[in-house]
Batch of 2 targets.
Target 1
Amino acid sequence: METRRQKHLVLILAREFASNLATPTLIADDQGRLIFYNEAAETVTGRPFAEAGEMPLDEWTAGFAPRTLDSEPLPLDRRPAGIALYERRAAHEQFRITSLDGVEREVAVTAFPLFAHADEFVGVIVIFWRE
Amino acid sequence: MRVTIWGCRGSMPTPGPDTVHYGGNTSCIEVLLDDGTVIVLDAGTGIRRLGFELQERGTRRIHLFLTHLHLDHLEGLRFFGPLWDERVMLDIWGPPSPLSSLQERIARSFSPPLFPVELRDVPAQVTFRDVPRRQWTVEGASLAAALVVHPGPTVGFRIETASSSFAYLPDHEPALAGAIADRSSDWISGASIADDVDVLVHDAQYFEDEYEDRIGWGHSSVADAVSFSRAVGARRLLLFHHEPRHTDGSLERLEARARSLVRRSEVQPTLAREGMVVELP
């Protein structure tokens, strides 16, 4: 039996939830691939998701040069999205990014893993709180 | 593969003169494989008459797949004749829950004050299994189950043999996760179950105006059923889970509405009807 691949129902519902939020929110799948961000997140990303398309989280965030408040580089595995993805636990952090408009901003980010069943990890939700 | 509809009414049984043609029994479908394997989809009140038929045939092994445990999909089980026959082996499959096992959840309907006999006291040899996350086989058929948009843990089923495929999504509101026509199929609930299927049985409980007042109840409008069928490339659509208030006459108007929505190249949708038999190669 070979059928088309479909996103997990939890991700489909998460996307609909995010698309109705005024808070910048993005969703990645269990492989760390960015699969959606909402309109509110366009204020951070500078372009709509339909234009950006799916891509690895790390590739997407590289453009924002994330760094600590002391200006140390902040790799994915130390950021909330990476912690939720690799360690499968919720995380929150404040750090700096350079937006696509070239402005340095301080953001707070919350990320948490999505489990369809206790042992079935399907992705992460990442929420940006602009400071 | 022979598919027989034993119950296609949604939400609650509706016997009476207004529902004689399409039937008032709730969800139950029998899928008979070429090798004689009996697969039963849901245990609404339609399963009672199926039970008589299976006893008549002397069937001793039955695979029952439950999409979810809302009453209209479970209430017939207590009156399913083979359950009361110690010679019968009944495998019951259903969606997993993080809170309790399938057996524990079904046992609630076999306990006071709802019912006088405990589930552990039924004579048949019953096993309970959570549906696997990956496809599996039962006798000569491949099966797949996936969670779909409906309140509470609910799955749809796909049954496939070497020559044909059948999908069953009786309670499904894919439009709740966004307009179906606007999405690629990988973002549509239930798409992996119904992809390119020969026959799709899908929830079409409401006319569009009725649906507007019932968004989030877990069921589809006839227009969404047609959109879903088109999005997944189903070759034939059977409209299912008829609204209890819909008489035979209003169901015929619903079918006409569905047919007005399909394109010339598409097969016209048909109302599921109690007693209907669909033969697949």
Target 2
Amino acid sequence: MNAAGETPLLEVRGLVMHFAISEGIVLSRKVGDVKAVDGVDFTIGRGETLGLVGESGCGKTTTGRCILRLERPTAGEILFDGRDVNRMERRELVALRRRMQVIFQDPYSSLNPRMKVGEIIAEPIKVHGIEPDAGRRRAKVRELLSVCGLDPKFVDRYPHEMSGGQRQRVGIARALALDPEFIVCDEAVSALDVSIQAQVINLLEDLRDRFGLTYLFIAHDLSVVRHLCQRVAVMYLGRIVEMAASDELFDNPLHPYTQALLSAVPIPDPRIEASRAFRPPKGEVPSPINPPSGCVFHPRCPKAVDACKVVRPELRELRPGHWVACGEVH
Amino acid sequence: MPPLLEVRGLHTEFRTGAGVVRAVDGISYTVEAGETVAVVGESGSGKSVGALSILRLIPDPPGRIVAGEILFDGRDLRGLTEAEMRHVRGRDIGMVFQEPMTSLNPVLTIGRQITETLERHQGADRPTAEKRAVELLEMVGIADPKRRLRQYPHQLSGGMRQRVMIAIALACSPKLIIADEPTTALDVTIQAQILEVMKSLSRKLGVAQIIITHNLGVVARYASRVNVMYAGRIVEAGPADAIYHDPRHPYTIALLRSVPRLDQPRRARLDPVDGQPPDLTRLDGGCAFRPRCRFAVERCATARPPLEPSGEAGHVSACFRSSELGVVAEVAA
């Protein structure tokens, strides 16, 4: 429950997702775990956009996949509108799929190359038996295309006949086909050129306002996240290290990892760049198979003390709505 | 003193089923010794083909350099034999590409790939080359270089592999490094590390760099001069500060307004260019940006604006209305 006393649309509690690594082909045995997500908690309110950011392997995509129930988590609960998605029976799950959709990064590989655009968008409507009448289904598809800024004539095109930006709009139209409430956007604008990316960002914002959508916006591009999200959670090696309202997080980052991450992003202005103190974090992200003890960031952290090697810092609310998992920040 | 590199009227075409694509359609620019020039543009703008043309790495067929001169250190590279060109690549001009996994040989150790370059181009013997390989890996910030030399590319992380690429590019003390999207595949903290290595080494060793990128932040942090490309042409070029603070081409202005910025609170809406990049097989006699341009006038449909001085010294723009744009952009901002 949030301050206003309503149930959030999505609540993730203690999410853990470990992937077993096995060795041997005949007598396969487990030799370890990739700790992709290792204890993650957050909520998303209705109509809110939460950004989930971090570098490759931080667990942001796996978190999204668990929410969509594309993975069965090792532990933890994912409550969608108060119901645990992992305890849902088939019928309930089918209903859930209508309310929860996804937009992937790569429209090249997430659209079936043998289907026409019209068929791609109509398929979910057909599968869920929402509009049995073929004529009305076609009208709905045309409407979805125009909502997404595409010419309705595109129904007869194949994905390969379109540009990357147009394909991503088709992916968005497909996600909207079932009138969902919640959409996981997994690097939805990352593969696009700057000018096209800006068009798609504007489209995602328009759709949010028009249909009252809630987004989990997973991305590595922090500038895009700042622009699009109301709140942001920063992940590192399977854990959330900092979470706050967007402007608060970007203007006053408190966790040493967030600070390092933000200082690594170049600003498109040579005068600002010339005057910026710039310290890229040393080293690389350790393996999630054998993450460091205590605070997972301690081997790269400029503020680390002995205790950081032992004690795993929990998220603490250091300012109203600003959560930080670091024992050395007060 | 003549510039280190001078590209004059370069045209590179590809013959495809759909027609002739003029991927690079008459570009001219210079790179002075020791300086860093960024080439910025979106997919299909010709920024990579332009750089590969300098190295004569355009697959023929379907591609072909059809006109122009590439004067490097006093010689026209287009006139060299393939054998001479092989020496230019790797010895005089180093290369760093986007995906180090595909540009490194997966079945040779890291060490062998560095020593091979040294043996081939500098006639070094094996022990000398190995000693130098250790120095090079140290220089690009790889810890425990002796152990790394015995490893294969797949045993290294993406950032580590790109450091190896830089070590190979620097092995024969080149005068110029061409880096094509060197950090696009990397995470932002690794990107920052790699670019810092490239910057400090190019300064220390006096190597000039051409950095090809779509990232306007990277350009702002590292380049002294910038070429903005659109549809195979340079539409604007000049000192980085002028390009960002006094842009004189509608495309540059549009690009700068399309990027969300990390240092600014949320604006109401981004202001992107409408429409799609043009089909390069169907360009007409007018300005290629015209269909997307907010400032287009009748003349833009009939003639291609040439690159002409605009604003401060060294700043050029290919727009009939470039002198008005400074004012227009300021008012709108």
